[in-house]
Specification:
nine-stranded antiparallel sheet, 5 helices, alpha+beta
Length: 270
């Protein structure tokens, strides 16, 4: 099997980790006259379509978000990854509390697996570099990972993290060895990495993309008293304590922006 023209003058592999690659479109030529101007200026600002390309070598497997597969070539098969009724129920519970798909298909075999294009930025993580307890993701970040990566649901350190911070009580945590592909609202080069060594980090808002699962996470008042918080103009902050690291974005576009840009993308086969 040979795949021609996967890369050309308009499409380039911009990052690689293991058998995961990020394919980026320099410009979007598959547009209609009605939205050509918008697509042109989006390209100038770096808002481009990107895809995850996974080389399947017959040994490694890949787990992806449900509905994310665009095409695959070679002897590649998909399985549900469900090992029984009890496992299905557990996965449904995980999906319900983490805003992720309940069942994530697992692909095996030899060939190539290409995921649906997205206007979001794609970040490749080495899961093993986050320590034995792994990395915890903000809701909706997961896109794909190696089959060797284990995923589980972890609970916030206390109820205040959900009730006060307008956050979910549970998050998806990845551990083990392998690669994870995340969908981010901001590019990797804009992310700030903070390493903590028995220290704490306070963030105004949910700007953290992911953090070491070894860290405790709470939502607290910015000062010790309600009056102090009112006077300072700061209300609640996200607090990460312990030893580990946090990836955070200093500025984050709203989700509605990417909903609008994704609506401009022509659907496959159209």
């Amino acid at each position: 099997m040979r795949v021609a023209n996967l890369e050309n003058e308009n499409r380039k592999i911009v990052s690689t980790m293991g058998n995961f690659h990020v394919l980026e479109y320099a410009k979007d030529a598959s547009v209609s006259p009605a939205n050509a101007a918008a697509e042109y200026f989006m390209g100038k600002m770096g808002v481009r379509r990107r895809q995850v390309v996974i080389d399947m070598n017959g040994k490694d497997t890949a787990i992806i978000q449900a509905g994310a597969m665009q095409w695959m070539a070679g002897n590649v098969q998909a399985t549900t990854g469900v090992k029984g009724v009890g496992d299905l129920f557990g996965k449904m519970v995980k999906g319900a509390v983490t805003k992720e798909s309940a069942v994530k298909p697992e692909y095996t075999g030899s060939g190539i697996l290409v995921l649906e294009p997205t206007y979001k930025y794609l970040i490749l993580l080495d899961v093993g570099s986050w320590g034995p307890q792994g990395v915890t993701l903000e809701d909706g970040m997961f896109y794909a990972c190696s089959g060797t990566v284990k995923n589980k649901v972890v609970m916030r350190s206390n109820l205040s993290s959900a009730a006060l911070g307008n956050e979910g009580l549970f998050n998806l945590s990845l551990s083990g060895s392998g690669v994870a592909a995340l969908e981010s609202n901001v590019p990797c080069e804009e992310l700030v990495e903070v390493e903590l060594n028995g220290d704490e980090l306070k963030i105004d808002g949910n700007l953290a993309v992911c953090w070491s699962s070894s860290l405790s996470f709470t939502v607290e008042r910015s000062t010790k008293t309600l009056l102090g918080s009112a006077v300072s103009g700061e209300g609640l902050v996200s607090v990460y304590r312990g030893t580990g690291k946090v990836l955070m974005c200093p500025v984050a576009p709203t989700g509605s922006l990417f909903a609008a840009t994704n609506s401009l993308a022509p659907k496959p086969g159209k």
